[in-house]
Amino acid sequence: MRALSATGDDGLVELVRVPEPSVAAGEVLVDVQAVSVNRGELHRLTSATAGWRPGWDFAGVVADQESGTARAAGHLLPGTRVFGIADGGSWAERVAVPAARLAVIPDGLTVEWAATLPTAGLTALRTLRMAGDLAGARVLVTGAAGGVGRFAVQLARRFKAEVTAVVGRPERGEGLAALGTAEVVVGVEGVGGRIRPRPGGRRR
Q1: pLDDT tens digit string along 91-149?
Q2: In what helix (H) or strand (E) does residue 32 lie, and over which residues does it extend?
Q3: Which residues contact 48 (CB under 8 A, 6 or more apart)?
Q4: Distance CA 11, CA 176 (A)
Q5: Which parts of the sequence belong to the Enoyl reductase (ER) domain (predicted)?
Q6: Is 114 strand, coil or helix?
Q7: What is the pLDDT of residue 50?
Q8: Which residue, of 15, 54, 90, 110, is most buried by count of CB atoms within 10 Å of its CB?
């Protein structure tokens, strides 16, 4: 199959032929239709040796596979649209991952949008959950224009918080109001007087 692989030359990748992934017990083989690019992967590419294969987030459909593997995957039968996260190597035509790392794509969501969810979406969700119940709280999201930040804005609003978004430049704030921000602040120097300890809040 075809996959993108590091050349070992300052973050560059090339399209190469690689062996088909082996599917272990409890894993699912996915025909990859979309991937997303994360900052961590790009940083890793700058020092990667030739042959290293990047790729965390992906979306696609469960591939035809041996019946034993299909049974181990439970409801994830061939043809099911899924998205998930791999330890690497998902910038390829196919990837094998544990079934627990996959989720079914809801109707109405494209594979392209689904592929953006795992790393950035889960990072935002886990961070907000550390704060406990956010209903009625005021939440400050720094780096709100980035992938994690935009998910954090939307999730905080869904949790019924009032969101202030911080961006580095005015143009970076475009579209954030539509995602639910009550206010967009340019530069961290503009938020110093707005930060207050939350009564009963947890620090970690």
Answers
A1: 999 999 999 999 999 999 999 999 999 999 999 999 999 989 999 999 999 999 999 99
A2: strand 27-35
A3: 6, 8, 11, 54
A4: 31
A5: 8-203
A6: helix
A7: 94
A8: 90
Which amino acid is present at 134? L
Query: How many angstroms separate the CA atoms of 126 and 124, rounded?
Result: 6
Full-model pTM = 0.82
Q: What is the C-alpha separation between 108 and 110, in angstroms, rounded?
A: 6
DSSP state of 67: H
Taking all residues of the chain, what is their mean pLDDT, rounded to a whole number?
Answer: 88
Instruction: Mark out the alpha helices in 73-196 (DSSP H runs).
Output: 111-114, 122-129, 147-158, 176-179
Q: Which domains does the chain have, with CATH numbers?
A: 2-110 (3.90.180.10), 119-194 (3.40.50.720)
Helix (H) or strand (E) holding 39: helix 39-45
| Closest residue by Cα to residue 72 from 32, 24, 22 | 24
